[in-house]
Amino acid sequence: MLMKWIKCQVNVENKRAFSTAQEGWGELLHCAGFMGQIGGWNKNEPLEAGILSVWKDLHSYQRFMRHQHDEIFGKNDQRSTYTNIFVDIFDKIFNIGTTDITDFFGKGKLLRVTDCYVETNKQAHLEQMQKEVWNKGMMSSPGILSGAFGKKQNGRYLVASLWDNEYSYQRYVDKELPALIKESGVKDSTQRITGSLIELHPKWAVI
After folding, report:
1. Which pLDDT band holds residue 193 (cuts at 50, 70, 90)?
2. What's 63's domain CATH number?
3. pLDDT by residue (tens digit) across 73-90?
4. Closest CA to 101 of 142, 60, 55, 156
5. pLDDT for 28-58, tens place per residue?
6. Selection from 80, 93, 20, 92 nearest residue 52 by Cα
7. pLDDT at 98
C-alpha cells in the first residue's frame, strides 16, 4: 500500500478557490487501486493545505498518474490556486492499530502527520520502537481512530494518525506523548522531524 502526502502553500486570497478545486477530485473513486483521500488546512500553518491519499500499490498509482491525473487536475484548474506544492510517496509498513486507516477516513476530524528523517544505522531501532512503544501507547489513547506508518528508501518515515477531535489529540500530547518520547528515544534516532496538524475538511474527502 502507498501513502501519498501532499502539502500546498496557498495565498490567503486563494484559499476559497483552492478548497473548491480540492472538492473536485471525486473522479478518483473511478480509478483502479485508489483507496481513499482526506485533507484540510494545517491548524498551525493556516495557509498550508495537507492531503493524504492512499493507493493499493505502486502500479495502480503510476497508471493513474499516466492516464487520469492530468485530466482531473486540468478540469478543476487547481494549479492556479497554490504557490508551492510538495509531494512524497511512502510505502506503508504497518498499521497503527488493528484496522486500516482508510476505514476511518469518513469519521476522523483531525489528522496528525509526522515526517522524519533517520540515519541508516538507526532505522531498525526506530521501526522497532514504533511497533513496541508508539503503536501501543498511541492506540491506548482515547480518541485515536487508526493510523499508519510508512517509509521511503532515503530514510524518511511518515506517521499518520487519525483522531476523533482536537480535544482527544491535545490530551494525548499533554498526558502521554512526553513519556512515549522518553521511552522510545526518538530524539536520538531522528535527524529531522516536522509535523502537520490537519483539521479535516469533509468536502475534501474522497471515500
Report:
1. confident
2. 3.30.70.100
3. 999 889 999 999 999 999
4. 55
5. 999 999 999 999 999 999 999 999 999 999 9
6. 92
7. 87
3-state secondary structure the chain: CEEEEEEEECCHHHHHHHHHHHCCCHHHHHCCCEEEEEEEEECCEEEEEEEEEEECCHHHHHHHHHHCHHHHHHHHCHHHHCCEEEEEEEEEEEEECCCCHHHHCCCCCEEEEEEEEECHHHHHHHHHHHHHHHHHHHHCCCCEEEEEEEECCCCEEEEEEEECCHHHHHHHHHHCHHHHHHHHCHHHHEEEEEEEEEEECHHHCEC
Into how many domains does the chain fold?
Answer: 1
Indicate the pTM of the whole model. Answer: 0.93
Q: Tell me the residue type at 80.
A: S
Q: Which of 51-65, 69-83, 90-104, 178-192 has the lowest mean pLDDT?
A: 178-192
The domain in which residue 164 lies consists of 2-204
How far is CA 118 from each of CA 78, 136, 148, 153, rounded to the nearest angstrom?
Answer: 33, 21, 17, 11
